[in-house]
From TrEMBL:
It is found in: Cell inner membrane. This is Diguanylate cyclase DosC. GO terms for cellular component: plasma membrane. It comes from Halopseudomonas xinjiangensis. One of its GO terms (molecular function) is oxygen binding.
């Protein structure tokens, strides 16, 4: 039994060691990624659909990492950046790059296009965050009124004392705050009135099987009603089919994001899509 235990231990520590090594290699590669220009932003349109017309109102910036010609998914590397703290620096690059890009679209025929940027809690909880955002806006000439910062419920759940003050500071700059992935985390309706939130994004897991799944349909319907009652904009994400489009239109959800309109694409590739969605 002893020998067995020992070999198990050896096996375990080897895998653990491998895991630690893998982590460190990944962290090192990520810290070079900024220097080597391996990060890129993709953009996905957010479209307002009303009375038979569709018009793009904004884009969400989504981070991509290219390593040796392979694209690595943010779900794989964002958690590593968050744990190591590198997300603070990378997140600021994302914000600056997105503002710079969308500003150039403002100046070239797409005025007022909103820019949504995802935030990690590490960024928001880092002291002086609102001032840093203000500096990026100043530097890029991007209007605060076109910036949307997307946060998740888990960020609010951490209950860090300065969170409310920071969000209020951002709001007073004219920035909108969106609650992303609504309903998937540790939802508390209390957040909706305790914090200055302007937009709810209905998570794609609710929409994917609505309207076929009655219960998921009921949840989507309730979230949409809640958002409208609170005079927030409600964006449904992950829309892929005409059935989903019809369902959302019937429920009065006018802001749509999903492959139905476009997958996230590079700045160059999304530009013609934005132009065509601005004139429909
Ligand atoms: P998210 O913020 O919920 O972003 C939406 C995700 O849904 C994106 O995945 C998008 O490509 C995908 N999506 C959009 N429409 C559809 C659709 O119709 N069907 C399906 N199946 N999926 C759709 P992506 O780009 O892989 O990003 C994954 C997550 O990584 C994001 O989820 C966000 O949490 C995180 N992320 C991405 N960029 C950043 C960033 O710059 N900073 C931070 N902190 N997180 C980021
Ligand atoms: Ca998001
Ligand atoms: Ca989301
Ligand atoms: Ca998500």
């Amino acid at each position: 039994a002893k020998a067995y235990g020992k070999s198990q231990l050896a096996l375990y520590s080897e895998t653990l060691q491998e895991e630690v090594n893998h982590r460190l290699t990944l962290e090192n590669a990520l810290s070079e990624a900024l220097l080597r220009n391996q990060f890129e932003l993709y953009y996905q349109p957010i479209v307002k659909v009303e009375g038979g017309t569709s018009r793009v109102i904004g884009v969400e910036a989504l981070l991509r990492w290219w390593q040796d010609g392979t694209m690595i998914s943010p779900d794989e590397f964002i958690p590593v950046l968050e744990e190591s703290g590198q997300i603070v620096e990378v997140g600021e690059w994302v914000l600056r790059e997105a503002c710079r890009q969308v500003k150039s679209w403002h100046d070239n025929g797409l005025p007022g296009l909103r820019c949504s940027v995802n935030l990690s809690s590490r960024q928001l909880h880092e002291g002086g965050f609102a001032a840093r955002v203000a500096a990026v806006l100043e530097e890029t000439g991007f209007p605060a009124s076109s910036l949307v910062l997307e946060i998740t419920e888990s960020l609010l759940m951490q209950d860090v004392p300065d969170t409310l003050a920071t969000l209020r500071e951002l709001e007073s700059l004219g920035i909108r705050i969106a609650l992303d992935d609504f309903g998937t985390g540790f939802s508390s309706l209390g957040y909706l009135h305790r914090y200055p939130l302007h937009i709810i994004k209905v998570d794609k897991s609710f929409i994917t099987r609505a309207p076929d799944d009655e219960r998921l349909g009921a949840i989507s319907r309730a979230i949409i009603g809640l958002g409208r009652g609170l005079r927030m904009d409600v964006i449904a994400e992950g829309i892929e089919t005409p059935e989903q489009m019809r369902f959302l239109r019937d429920e009065g959800c006018h802001y749509i994001q999903g492959y139905w309109f476009s997958r996230p694409l590079s700045a160059d590739n999304i530009h013609p899509v934005l132009v065509s969605l601005s004139t429909l």
